[in-house]
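Could you join me in thinking about how sequence relates to backbone shape in a protein? We need material for that, and I hope you will provide a protein of your own picking. Once you have written the record down, we can walk along the chain together:

…
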Amino acid sequence: MCGIAGQLGREPGDFAARVGPRLAHRGPDDAGVWQDAGACLVHRRLAILDLSPLGHQPMASPCGRWQLVFNGEIYNHAELRRRLEAEGQQFRGSGDTEVLLAWLIRWGRDGLEALRGMFAFCLYDSRERSALLARDPHGIKPLYLRSGAGGSLSFASELRALLAADPQQPELDRQSLARYLATGSVPEPATMVAGVQRLPCGHAASWREGELAVHPWGALPESLAGATTDTGMTAAEAVALTRSALEDSVAAHMVSDVPVGLFLSAGLDSASLLALAPRGLHTFTIGFEAAGADGFDESGPAGRIAAHFGAHHTPLNLTADQARQWLPAFLASQDQPSIDGYNTWCVARLATEHGLKVALSGLGGDELFGGYPSFRMVPKLCRWRRRIGPAGPPAAWLLHRLPQGRRARLQRITGLLEAPASLGQAYGCFRGLFSPTETERLLAHWGLSASPGAPAAGEAGGGEAPGGREGVAWLEGTRYLRNQLLPDSDVMAMAAGLELRLPLVDAQLQRRLAPIPAALRLAEGKQLLADSLPELPGWFLNRPKQGFRFPFQLWLDDPASPLALRLPTTPRGIDLAPWYRRWSLMVLQHWLEVHLGVSLSAAPHP
């Protein structure tokens, strides 16, 4: 796990000096730079596999022609090593970087399908002056791109590092701002900065002589693409297959030359990983010490399940005062504005304070096994909208004019009524932050309206979802997981110098589970997952589901709020009673001021 950056097609100048320090937190163990007259590659290393100097990057091929910078882990590197050795390849070290370098030289883009892991890399050919860049199928590891003068290309693991390479003031991408207001994050491939894009997940980019071409190389696993074919599989067969696939994924994600820990909530996903992992794992949980925070505190059952499986457990009881003290460092770690990420930042800090460099997380289980309330509510909303039919827009007009029509929930419902019926629109209503009308009013109030003809904020995400629960799984995977949970988890864990591994966000796992009928895989209560883990005790499985949340509502409603953030000005009638709306605007205001010099203040009337 590392931080990478590079500049291709122009003199290196001071690129490494500008960018390297901005990536230092991602790799405190080692630093490296390679450059020639037309290229510069930068690397910061967090040593996980092959802790010796033989894992140093940028890593050169034995002949010196190719240079590789790589961020991530290749979990099946031992298997790939054996295949290469059978062809006569020799290796000096024991890590995955050396294997990846040899594999890419041998197979190029055609070899990406064989990789199991999370990765973002650049392989540079110094003789041909060309490069191959790629990301893993889910986009667990980030890669930001910016094209420059004369066909040059720069890239980095974090947006802030890429901005540091250019002394000019970056400009706001207004359409991305609109999408943030709609969803609470910026959907890829866009970013909040004009001219900077993310290489999409499961895509590779070829750069040669100033020309950049982007190609998909790995389609999303079928389980996220909404496979609907009924294979006739029985429930018992589905349980056996799920158990085998989970055991395989957890074992793959335990490959490490340093100890591996676990982020443990009181939920089924992380407890499943604990049950399948080797005994004696070090686990970490966050609890809360505040009046009224009992409904948020999972530390009791988390500690009990940790003891059941013989884990070495460390809880953190977070007070409002501690949250206030940590807030500036958390905000400084945000790579793009997001309403999420504080939980990962806190627990990652806890893990590194106890000497850990790697931790597992149960992220992705709700998307894979149907655990969110959205799996019930979104199809209901869609059916309700279809029944209303052409009466939707007139009903929306009436709701706007009701005395309580400015309330957040009613605003989202009116947005659903104004649009044609679809599962995607229903999902936007359920998961949305501000309605399309509210988003337009906020942008106009700040004088930051998107250009005419730009796609509506609610249209971000791409593609039309299949129907039913499998369609919700596709939406949760391609929107919430991809655009919010994965980017936030990466940047907040790496802010503490911690590698976060996600056994439930694994293409091999999901391909194996794809033949399971959706009715079984997405059954209420994540029943398939529960049935696959008979060693989980009854008291744990029979507890009411309690989603992990932070007590932001309590903190923000407190007149002496410990979260000292400034709320930007908003037009009259925007409902800010829901805490998540206030939090989202405070975080947005802070990020825009710090990184783009933009203040969300009322625009003067013409």
